[in-house]
Amino acid sequence: MSEKDFISVCHNPFNNIEIQSDGNIYPCCADYCKHHSFGNIFEESDFEKIWNSEAAIKFRTSLLNKDYSVCNLGYCHFNCKQKIDTPSNYTPKMQIYPEYVKFCHEIQCNVRCITCRDKQCYSSKEQTEKLNSLIEPMFLPILKDCKVVTLNGSGEVFASKHCRTLVKAIVEKYPDIKFGIHSNGLCFDKRNCDDLGITDKIEYAEISIHAVKKQTYDKIVRDSNFDKVMKNVEWLADLKKQGKINRIQLDFVITSINYKEMKAFQALANKLDVETSFTTYRPWGSQLANNYNKVAVFEKTHPEYNKFVKIVQDKIFKSPNCRMQNTLKHLKPVSRSISLKYKSNIDDKSLLFLFKLRDLYNMLLFYKLDKSLFDNENEQEYNHKKKISEIKAEEFQENLVKDLNSKIKIKDKTVLEIGSDLELKTAKLLLEYGAKRVVCVNPAFANELKSPDERITIIKDLCENINLKNNEFDIVFGIALLEHVHNIKGLFEKVRDILKPNGLALLQGNPMYCCACGHHIHINDTFGFSKNLGKINPFEPWEHLMYNTREDIEQLFIKKGFPENEIKLMLNQYFSDLLNKYRTNDIINTVKSVPNLKSVIKYEKELQYKPNEFYKKALKNYNKDELMNRGIIIYARKTESK
Known about the structure:
With 642 residues, this protein is an alpha/beta fold.
């Protein structure tokens, strides 16, 4: 092939899938692709309809257009500026089935990693039989063009009767297929590999260890045997030396429990001639998630953050066999005099971790983006700006609460408010309309929310073990929310569960990413980075949709003459995971797919900006509704009890 036969784009959407335990099929890790599912294999048995579904074609088209807004590049190791040779026959609609298939559909495991689960997971006899019944008609046909099958991203392949049966079936039907084994390592030995017939078919091995000392390992991985795991790792490393395994990767999920062993972990990998992967802990719903603030040493609010940064900056992690999460590559120490009152990486796996809120956005502007606002002499200026922002928000809050009351009478209702403002103005408005009780959630203000009113219940901290029961609320209410939530489906499924039958959610997004000002880095007197830029907006209307990489936008800002320190602040804001950067229509379609929710969409028109040259160019990738609607309000009513 000639040079023109290749394009620089990620391979995964064109030759890779991951099948999750709920049946959803993703082009890669669900968090990496922002939970963009191609379809559900338990709902659609014809894989062709999933592999070339409308969602799959949209995702591939986005990447072919060098638009990585569908991806979370902070987690992903892919560098969209790096030259990656991808055959030009990779098209939105693929003619061949995936060459790499990862089965993550079976949850049974033989250990308990506290970063993952609190209990060992078992599959019942009935569940195993059901999964086994899908092997011939459903799973095997997917593999007709497959080169490597990986098991198991959700459980342990050697501990699962179904996975063992599946592997043996694959070996029999497709003897040339290689295997990638993602394992905790406890049973990853010669005897088990021989039994499955894969000892000479292992393409790569990925072992989750998280420590180099037994006492640390035992704190993280329960019901395991550190010495046995290390013995198995050494056996695998020896196979690699013999050329029988292509690559081995040791996984390390970073917490305050183990971060001091990172350098030793990398040194061990260097000694064994294997690779490493360092990623931050992401709450999966275990009890550890209730202590996120204590274990998230990689957050700037953590008291040991600077110690962690010093370790991550060590030259040992420059080793070519080290894969460090992108968000950790350019960390810098923070002044301990800074009192950060926000949490910048809230996960969305449960209700409390689903919400990247408007008030968090405001806090980021006030605290994170302008260092001068941390100084004592600027406290008065900050308080002035805060008051301005609160005054601006009052009319907006009043209008939405009034709108809510027109759809469902608030009187005598129990309300969950997502994203409560610091002075609880919206909560008080809801009470004025007669709400019986208002539960307020806002991680940005954590312990700052206070109210003497017994009708207001405040969730003080994400570390609390909050028990929001199903069928508990008549109303769920959230302002400027939808542009920040990464797991839209998870949010609305949770909202559905906690709503009472016939209960109503009013959740709004504004400004949406596709609209004229959807970049969320406005420069003005209310939300200013600093007084240097006055009322300058860094982008022309819709101009942000023309660029995808940090380097390109940096060059644009340099060309526009912004000061270097302001450019850095704006880039950090734009490329944080504060924004989901989803298409408005994708959000709407996702919400409409949630069972037992009847949703109605109200568009908020763009009244400030008129179409320009960037608008016309954006029409190639977005439709008029997405570009000309500044916001959306989703009214979702629960249709039956869950």
